[in-house]
Amino acid sequence: MTTRTEAVIIGAGLSGIGQAVAFARSGIDFVVLEKAPDLGGTWQSNTYPGAACDVEAHLYSYSHTKNPYWRSTYAGQEEILGYIRGVAVRHGLLPRIRFGTQAVSARWHEDTAEWTVETADGTTYVSRFLVLGVGGLHMPRIPEVPGAATFRGSTWHTSCWNHDVDLAGKHVTLVGVGASGVQVVPHLAERAASLTIFQRTPPWVLPKADATIPAWRQRLFAWLPAAQSLHRLGIYLRREKRGFGFHTRPDLLRVAEPIVRRKIDEQIADPSLRALVTPDYPLGCKRVLFSNDYYATLNRPDVHVVPGSPAEVRPDGIVDEAGGEHRTDVLVYATGFDLTGSFDRIEIAGTDGRLLKEAWRDGIHGYQGLAMPDFPNMFMAGGPNGFAPYTSVVSNIEAQARYVVQAIRTTRSAGARALTVRQDATDRFLAEMRTRFARTVWAPGNCRNWYQNGSPGGTVLWPSSTLHYRLRLRTLRTDDYEFLTARNAFQRGSGSRQ
């Protein structure tokens, strides 16, 4: 069976749904292919106890579909997932989403100027434009530890939580203290007989200014949407101000370090444990985390922090790097995600059959976080260099969605069949990313983090303000693109900006 449409979106997470709304509002025909039985992306798959967003709910939502009824400053997983479902219903997207449909390959055909997307169930989708909204936070990264196959207990990654296992009375080992690890630690400690935490690098954990949103404010925002817009703008501007310390003046972030150290001193009595969980790198170099009970939980007598990574897994325990064995009934990995794995699971072939994974052999990269040379009419929602970790990703997602609509309209108005970003434009962009990244707090030399990679851009982040990014995407620079004419040859853009 073959379905034809103007655009195919792969993925129904925040990026895919954001693009789908933009297409629906612009009259562009499309379908969304989602491998899961439900939409929501990372918020559909990550159901571990305590899963929540560390960006204020009023900003971690679409500006075109506000929710006046957020229950707390920072929303949890269930509330966010419910919001995304509501967006899909409100904009009539559900009939366009093909749930349980896993894309296995996408191939560009220059003779017809179309993409052919093959799915695991045998259905084929043919479209002029392809948008990859696959996200980077749902392909678990699980380390290879000797003896893992011998473990007799239950094991899982935080993104695949096993809710059927009762943790009461169990000895639990958690590997990793990133965002999900810090969130889940208090919940594990409350339920388990003991909790052993393998910590490779201690995180900076700031207090979380969470609070219940009063009913009167919810009613005000529902009755006066402009008030909610101003509230959202205030959050955005505060985060942009804070972001200046991340991408331009890292020295400004040092003022927050004493706050964390005081919190550690107040909540942890054991001097050796205090030393173990106190970071020795600049705040902001790795992702800054937020919790009001993480450090207090570490102070419990049934919670033990072990430095380093597991050295060996045995049938009933985990061995640390010093040779000590820790009894374990349940092993939980909070070890993050494979950023490129979401793309690698789909064989994407562009001009002359060039594979995207081959183009990314030296690291994931692109142009403006959206496009790749030799992959015509293809865009990456939430792609490399398209997001900043100090604020909501949603504002950039909306800017990208508008840009893709603009690119499609520009291709139409030019009477072209396709457009592809030029290599020289991409090289200039990546050179700019390297220069900007070198002055940020995330740059190599401050610490190691997953934001750094060996690609031509040096990073997967947008190393500047999101306001800057949004302004850049307001106009499509046609001289950075080539257009496929009816003569089956790519012609350079006119130099105008549409």
Describe, in plain words, how this protein is organized in 3D.
By secondary structure, the chain is an alpha/beta fold. The protein is about 30% helix and about 20% strand. It is built from 14 helices and 21 strands. Strands 1, 2, 3, 4, 5, 6, 17 and 18 form an eight-stranded mixed β-sheet that branches. Strands 7-16-8-9-12 form a five-stranded parallel β-sheet. α1 packs across α12. The radius of gyration is 23 Å and the shape is globular.
Describe how the helices and strands are arranged.
Blueprint: E1 2-10, H1 14-26, E2 30-34, H2 42-45, H3 77-90, E3 97-99, E4 103-109, E5 114-119, E6 124-132, E7 154-157, E8 171-175, H4 179-191, E9 194-199, E10 205-206, H5 215-223, H6 225-247, H7 257-267, H8 271-277, E11 289-290, H9 294-298, E12 303-307, E13 312-314, E14 317-319, E15 325-327, E16 330-333, H10 341-344, E17 347-349, H11 356-359, E18 378-380, H12 394-413, E19 418-421, H13 423-437, H14 466-472, E20 481-484, E21 490-492
Parallel strand pairs: 1-2, 1-6, 2-3, 4-17, 6-18, 7-16, 8-9, 8-16, 9-12, 10-11
Antiparallel strand pairs: 4-5, 5-6, 13-14, 14-15, 19-20, 20-21
Describe the structure in brief.
The protein has helices at residues 14-26, 42-45, 77-90, 179-191, 215-223, 225-247, 257-267, 271-277, 294-298, 341-344, 356-359, 394-413, 423-437, 466-472; strands at 2-10, 30-34, 97-99, 103-109, 114-119, 124-132, 154-157, 171-175, 194-199, 205-206, 289-290, 303-307, 312-314, 317-319, 325-327, 330-333, 347-349, 378-380, 418-421, 481-484, 490-492.
Largest sheet: 8 strands, mixed
- The proportion of residues in beta strands is 15-25%
Rg, Cα atoms, Å: 23 Å
Shape: globular
